[in-house]
Design a protein that fits this description.
By secondary structure, the protein is α/β, with parallel strands linked by helices. It contains seven helices and 14 strands. The mean pLDDT is 94.
């Protein structure tokens, strides 16, 4: 692997550094990004591994020889494969950590020097100043942030989409309806390239955002169909474990434990919309609801 890596033609002042992390397969690495041609914001202090940290530090310190200066480290969200080096890198580089206010209680031992809010603009000085618009995009995680370089159309999108693998919506902290709404929001930005935490740069990202939405809504239709089929049998609803092999028949059983979480997130969304009903641990289609 060659590091650091360019992120695409016509995108200036942005570098990617993929570092090995304990992330969900098939991904093995999390991308960190350096944003800004003069002052530099480092995004995703991801790796917890000593050998990877040494290379990451050498990369970060190397900007000084280019006449560029580090101003802060930003986190897109609190998941371990994104913040595994946050405390270490902040101390080694003497940099503050920035993130959304919702990240603060989820990052013990990592104080947030700046709490970034939706719509805020981070301005980085230099020969060609950079303006990064902060986008709060909950759904995958309540503190999730994206960063949009509006001048270049480059969107650092964390775990909203992936260049490899998929995105887990865990109902313990995620929200399927919010996630879909935020994908729709990102699709309307007109970004030229999306820079995900996992996998390579994504050109023409609007199409991918729309595919993610269509895929999730397609899965939702399978949930509804499975509940309707179960109700025809006269049972008083059905369990998540019974729905799982039906709704995720196209998915290897090896990943069903993760799929089960997404299935629950779909059911909670449908319940809030009044389209399904839960009784204890059993689910059924709400009476009188259409498709």
């Amino acid at each position: 692997m060659i590091r650091p890596q360019p992120v695409g033609p016509g995108v200036r002042g942005v570098e990617a550094f993929p570092a090995r992390t304990p992330t969900l397969p098939p991904a093995t690495h999390t991308n960190s990004y350096a944003l800004g041609g003069g002052e530099v914001l480092l995004v995703e202090p991801a790796t917890p591994y000593e050998d990877e940290r040494r290379e990451w530090l050498a990369w970060a310190r190397g900007f000084a020889s280019q006449g560029r200066s580090l101003v802060a480290i930003a986190v897109t969200h609190h998941h371990a494969d994104h913040v595994g080096g946050a405390r270490f890198f902040a101390a080694e580089l003497g940099l503050p950590v920035w993130g959304h206010a919702e990240a603060a209680p989820r990052l013990p031992g990592v104080p947030l020097a700046r709490r970034l809010a939706d719509g805020e603009v981070v301005r980085l000085g230099g020969p060609e100043p950079t303006a990064l618009r902060v986008l709060h995009t909950p759904g995958h995680a309540p503190d999730h942030l994206c960063f949009l370089d509006e001048a270049q159309g480059a969107l650092v999108c964390g775990d909203m989409v992936a260049g490899e693998g998929t995105i887990l919506i865990d109902p313990r902290e995620g929200d399927m309806a919010e996630y879909l709404a935020q994908l729709d929001r990102l699709a309307g930005l007109g970004a030229r390239v999306a820079l995900p935490a996992h996998g390579g740069p994504i050109g023409a990202p609007e199409a991918l955002f729309r595919r993610y939405i269509a895929h999730r809504l397609g899965r939702e239709r399978l949930v509804i169909a499975a509940l309707e089929a179960a109700s025809e049998g006269g049972a008083g609803g059905t369990s998540i474990d019974a729905l799982l092999p039906v709704v995720y028949a196209d998915t290897a059983p090896l990943v069903w434990p993760l799929a089960r979480l997404s299935l629950e997130a779909h059911l909670i969304k449908l319940e809030r919309e009044g389209r399904v009903v839960r009784s204890d641990d059993r689910w059924r289609r709400a009476a009188g609801t259409g498709a």
